[in-house]
TrEMBL record, chain A:
PROSITE patterns associated with the record: PROKAR_LIPOPROTEIN (PS51257)
Protein name from the UniProt record: Gluconate 2-dehydrogenase subunit 3 family protein
From TrEMBL, chain B:
Domain FAD-dependent oxidoreductase 2 FAD-binding, chain residue ranges per copy: 14-47
One GO MF term: flavin adenine dinucleotide binding
Pfam families: FAD_binding_2 (PF00890), GMC_oxred_C (PF05199), GMC_oxred_N (PF00732)
This protein's name: GMC family oxidoreductase
Naturally occurring in which organism (per UniProt): Pedobacter cryotolerans
Cofactor(s) it depends on: FAD
Key words, A-Z: FAD, Flavoprotein, Membrane, Oxidoreductase, Transmembrane, Transmembrane helix
Domain Glucose-methanol-choline oxidoreductase N-terminal: residue ranges: 94-325
Transmembrane segments: 12-32
Span of domain Glucose-methanol-choline oxidoreductase C-terminal: 442-561
Length: 208, 578
């Protein structure tokens, strides 16, 4: 196989996979959950079954999801480069990932509760109903781990987890990948560091 | 009435091969091409990288964004298997540690390996320090086979003329990435040699091979290559062997034992089908085990008969003993000078671009043998865990205006930090020689069976001071390289309580040595052609026969030895000795 043929083969494979996945999705929508799942290339049967099961379940309550939605956009808001965490459907990602990794469940559920209690004690409102200014005043107390007061440590741990999950969910979407500037995952000929970059770092003469 | 029955095949194959990885695949390739009728049994399911690889997928095509929840090395990794398999336990003895990674797929663990392909050197076969036993063969015995493997499969690298790091027949290597140039500079200041990597990735076409296309630099070898640009036993060995018409492959065939005749010779193999749980027996003139060092040892130990009361090929009692994995430890961090770096595609290829072969003289050190260093980092494809360290890293270095700021944060400023730190990561990991010891072993657990009723392995493995002091040296070296390249270390710095970061045995997935070869049948299971001393028509072609692994990754040596064994089998058949 020459390079052109192989790339063509790749393109075709990618296309047919998309068609297959699309077809599979529309079947699931049409029929009931008792549908026998189609085998997927490169996946073991139990993996496909597990994913479908997780997707059919709901973990967070409406109130919890509303709070998560506010939090992720505080962590990653829209700016002049890219959209916000909710634009990238980060809350939906978090809903999936806590079912995939159940060890996130109690810290997140408990942390959301901690946040509401904290907010209620200060402003007599749950977090989602507080004003933007009130929300930020609480976030400021838990967003800086070293500076935070010892009595806020539970909130710091919760916010650290929330921040990491938000980054995971955001930068693994099309919006996030474009923002961060990852330009790989495409057939190419790697010819080493570009000349202008070598010059920028004074590495023109470093050879391996 | 019971419907239990054992289905016996009437075909007598020239050879039955157990396992389809590097060892089994190479034996099948050589024998099938020589006209032998071969049956291969693979415990897992079929896997063709062209169809089943997740190459070129984007993180959002995985609901867990590539995380390792269901596959230890990530959702796109070409791996059916893992550290634990449902219904197939293994146990550990005397509070010792061992982690066992098993693949259940055509091609075995060659589907997702790092493609790092290093020859063992003259001193690895014949150590000069007297600490471990010699192999019954020398580098010169194996060299012609390494050469043939290089030509047949393809390997990149550079000719360096190093004494114990033999050169191969190399294709053009990839150029270094930006962080690798900083590593080169920093490592040399720290007194550590850095050379071009060596890997089983086809950077040029192989004349006459139209089934495989050269690398197109996506950097995703671990997902399997749809154009067969890297080495997997499936694409490079098993499938080409099937096209000869001489190789039959049965998947989902979990081997129970090797069946022997009254005179003690191997006559076939019994297996259970993983899916329908039916029992089968197949017959062959030869049996070749390539199920992995520990799985092959398990099969031998479970193949007890009146002729072989201690298990097959085990009159010496060494089967299962001398188990050794490579040592491993690592350090990582980031390079502040790379913050706000220019974006471009630096995926490169999916094996190592650079590495450090062992460079020191043990006379001046407090541990024997050595290790090599593998390096990583750069602007990779984001996946689950992305940006995880940024909220602490942003408190370690000044911001754009030159002021120190509080670690953590949120909002537009944090978003800017994710961009600033992207691509600054750098890491290094040592892979070193662990000493083969009689008292590091696997054996049959007398009281535990798997879901097929096959008695399972129990492991007994302890690191000793040789490995721990080596890990200490690794960490000191890595920290000094990081310092010399002005890097900031973010990984944990380990002390004696955690063996200086030394990974648990098994974790590096280089386990070897359980069915060692040797000239003395009292002290070894196999002769120097990997033929059982006690059973002339039984061979082992995985890493079980290794006497003592060097710091080099095992695969290239498995391939060379399996080819050598297969050619020996053909020669012995010609001489009518088999």
């Amino acid at each position: 196989m020459n390079r052109r043929d192989s790339l063509k083969a790749l393109g075709l494979t990618a296309l047919s996979t998309t068609v297959l996945v699309g077809a599979c999705n529309s079947d699931v929508k049409k029929e009931t959950s008792s549908t026998v799942l189609e085998p997927q290339a490169g996946r073991e049967k139990w993996e496909v079954e597990r994913d479908e099961k997780l997707k059919s379940e709901t973990f967070f309550t409406k109130h919890e999801m509303a709070t998560i939605t506010v939090l992720v956009d505080i962590i990653i808001p829209r700016d002049n480069v890219s959209g916000s965490a909710t634009d990238a459907k980060v809350p939906e990602f978090i809903e999936f990932i806590v079912k995939d990794m159940p060890y996130h469940q109690t810290p997140l559920r408990g942390g959301l509760k901690w946040l509401d209690i904290q907010c209620f004690n200060q402003f007599e409102k749950p977090f989602v109903e507080a004003s933007a200014q009130q929300q930020i005043s609480i976030i400021d107390e838990i967003a800086y781990p070293i500076k935070a007061k010892p009595e806020m440590s539970a909130g710091v741990a919760f916010f650290n987890r929330m921040r990491d999950l938000t980054a995971s969910g955001f930068y693994t979407t099309e919006i996030g990948v474009k923002d961060i500037g990852y330009v790989g995952n495409t057939p190419n000929q790697w010819d080493g560091v570009p000349a202008d970059v070598l010059k920028q770092y004074g590495l023109e003469n470093v050879k391996v | 009435m019971s419907d239990f029955q054992i289905k016996k095949s009437s075909i007598v194959y020239d050879a039955i091969i157990v396992g389809s990885g590097a060892g089994g695949g190479m034996a099948a390739y050589v024998l099938a091409h020589a006209g032998q009728k071969v049956l291969m049994l693979e415990a897992g399911q079929n896997f063709d990288p062209r169809i089943d690889s997740h190459q070129m997928k984007w993180p959002w095509e995985s609901p867990r964004r590539g995380a390792g929840t269901t596959r230890p090395f990530g959702d796109f990794d070409a791996s059916y298997g893992g550290w634990q398999l449902d219904g197939e336990p293994y146990t550990k003895k005397d509070k010792t540690e061992f982690d066992w990674f098993r693949s259940r797929m055509l091609g075995g663990r060659t589907n997702h390996w790092g493609r790092i392909s290093l020859r063992m050197g003259p001193e690895d076969f014949k150590p000069t320090d007297g600490l471990t036993e010699d192999w019954p063969i020398t580098y010169d015995d194996v060299k012609p086979f390494y050469d043939k493997v290089d030509r047949m499969i393809g390997i990149y690298g550079t000719v360096e003329g190093l004494k114990n790091e033999p050169d191969g027949i190399f294709m053009k290597p990839p150029k270094p990435r930006l962080n690798e140039l900083f590593i080169k500079k920093g490592a040399e200041k720290a007194g550590v040699k850095v050379i071009t990597g060596r890997g089983a990735v086809m950077t040029e076409s192989i004349k006459g091979n139209n089934d495989r296309a050269p690398c197109f630099y996506c950097g995703q070898c671990g997902r399997g290559c749809k154009v067969y640009g890297d080495f997997s036993a499936s694409s490079c060995l098993v499938m080409p062997a099937q096209t000869t018409g001489n190789l039959t492959v049965i998947t989902d065939a979990m081997v129970r034992e090797v069946i022997t005749d009254k005179d003690g010779t191997a006559k076939g193999v019994s297996y259970v089908n993983r899916i329908d749980l039916q029992e089968y027996q197949v017959t062959g003139k030869l049996v070749i085990l390539g199920a992995s060092a520990c799985e092959s040892a398990r099969i031998l130990l479970n193949s007890k008969s009146s002729q072989h009361p201690n298990g097959l090929a085990n009159n010496s009692g060494v089967v299962g003993k001398y188990l050794h994995d490579s040592t491993g430890a690592g350090v990582y961090g980031f390079l502040p000078q790379l913050m706000d770096r220019k974006r471009y595609n630096e995926d490169g290829l999916g094996s190592i671009h650079i590495y450090s072969p062992w460079w020191l003289d043990n006379k001046k050190l407090d541990f024997p043998r050595g290790y090599h260093i593998e390096y990583g980092g750069g602007m990779g494809m984001p996946s689950y865990g992305f940006g995880g360290g940024v909220a602490s890293m942003n408190g370690m270095v000044p911001d754009k205006s030159g002021k120190m700021k509080e670690a953590g944060g949120y909002g537009a400023a944090l978003k800017e930090d994710y961009r600033r730190f992207y691509g600054t990561s750098v890491g290094m990991a040592g892979r070193g020689t662990a000493i083969a010891r009689e008292d590091n072993y696997c054996e049959i657990d007398p009281s535990v069976v798997d879901k097929f009723g096959i008695p399972v392995l129990t492991f007994h493995y302890k690191w000793a001071k040789e490995e721990i002091l080596q890990a200490k040296h690794m960490q000191e070296t890595f920290l000094s390289i990081m310092k010399e390249m002005d890097g900031v270390v973010t990984s944990k710095i380990h002390g004696p309580e955690t063996n200086y970061g030394l990974e648990a045995p098994g974790k590096i997935i280089h386990e070897v040595g359980t069915i060692r070869m040797g000239d003395d049948p009292k002290k070894s299971a196999l002769n120097k052609y990997c033929q059982a001393h006690d059973c002339k028509n039984l061979f082992v072609v995985d890493a079980g026969p290794f006497v003592q692994q060097g710091d080099k990754n095992a695969t290239w040596t498995i391939l060379a030895l399996s080819m050598r064994t297969a050619e020996y089998i053909l020669a012995e058949k010609k001489r009518q000795n088999l």
